[in-house]
Design a protein that fits this description.
The protein is α/β, with parallel strands linked by helices.
Length: about 325
């Protein structure tokens, strides 16, 4: 908003705490270096140290109430360069409204006011907030329940959230899908935060993310390397070759199949592994219903059904969060 006060200007410099201090846009640095005064309401503002290291003087002023701060900022003298207000991480609640009210009530008596974004959130930057929240919950003075949880105690919640996510996908509920994805993401961050506290082998969310990035890049040479792939089938074949090379120390083709899978999903996964190993399978008569079912014969029958469903291409149960066959979407 432009006023009649010649030469007077107030710049509200907004920044995000989700990028490293000092990573400001070039217009922001130009405004800071040409400012008559640079003011901040909190000496601990994350950008203060970086701005001062760049040779810019930053003055901390008592923020007080939003109306009082607005009067202070609009009362700066003109002629010595604009006044820059280094906005707080909380957005300085009420300040914008107070400034707008002054501009209306005292038209021609307040300086030109400009809002200048100094830094922007990068894609994925809200994940940093989740890291901060989880750290707060697990730290002294946080949540007693969260602080008591272990990898083992959270297993049931991880399974439940996975099934709830599958249900949201199957029902096509977009709102629930978004919520359930967040719940599953929380489990990953929760477990990673707990893992940081291990006395002998600690690791954190950055290690988890770094490992999966390396795995994805390695297993997608047709994207990140010079390998050519003619289609999805060839991509999957390459994926399996690379995965087999990684798991060369496994003694059996069944190693790595989680025993905690639901029974039919477990059977389908076993069939998938055996099929990829080149084993032909059981003869057709194995599908016949035995005259008397025992625990052993019932198990063989269910496995045979899973095998036939696999061969027919229809053994991906829609009610299980774990797909029975390996694909480039699985580690």
């Amino acid at each position: 908003m432009t006023t009649n006060v010649p030469g007077a200007k107030l710049i509200l410099l907004t920044t995000t705490h989700r990028v490293a201090p000092g990573l400001l846009a070039w217009p922001a640095w130009e405004a800071l270096r040409s400012a008559g005064r640079v003011l901040v309401g909190d000496e601990t503002h994350p950008q203060v140290a970086a701005v001062r290291q760049a040779g810019v003087t930053v003055e901390a002023v008592p923020a007080g109430s939003a109306p009082a701060l607005a009067r202070l900022l609009t009362g700066q003298p003109a002629g010595a360069g604009p006044t820059v207000w280094l906005g707080g991480p909380d957005g300085d609640p009420g300040l914008t409204d107070a400034l707008a009210r002054l501009a209306v009530e005292h038209a021609g008596e307040v300086p030109e006011i400009e809002v200048l974004p100094g830094s922007y959130d990068l894609p994925g930057s809200r994940l940093l907030d989740l890291v901060t929240v989880m750290d707060r919950l697990r730290s002294p003075g946080g949540c007693p329940w969260d602080a008591e949880q272990t990898h083992e105690s959270l297993v049931k919640y991880l399974v439940e959230e996975a099934y709830e996510l599958v249900e949201a996908i199957e029902e096509g509920d977009r709102d629930s899908l978004r919520e359930e994805l967040g719940d599953v993401l929380l489990q990953v961050f929760f477990h990673s935060r707990i893992a940081e506290e291990h006395p002998g082998e600690p690791f954190g969310i950055d290690d988890v993310a770094g490992d999966i990035v390396e795995k994805l890049v390695y297993r997608h040479p047709h994207v990140f390397g010079d390998v050519e792939a003619g289609g999805a089938a060839e991509v999957e074949a390459n994926w399996e070759q690379l995965k087999a090379a990684e798991k060369a120390d496994r003694e059996s083709v069944l190693d790595g199949v989680p025993a905690g899978l639901p029974a039919l999903a477990y059977a389908a996964k076993l069939v998938s592994r055996v099929r990829r190993s080149g084993f032909a399978g059981v003869p057709d008569e194995s599908y016949e219903l035995p005259a008397e079912l025992t625990a052993d014969s019932a198990g063989r029958l269910l496995l045979a059904v899973a095998q036939r469903a696999h061969d027919a291409g229809s053994c991906r149960p829609t009610t299980s969060p774990t797909s029975p066959a390996s694909s480039p979407g699985q580690a």
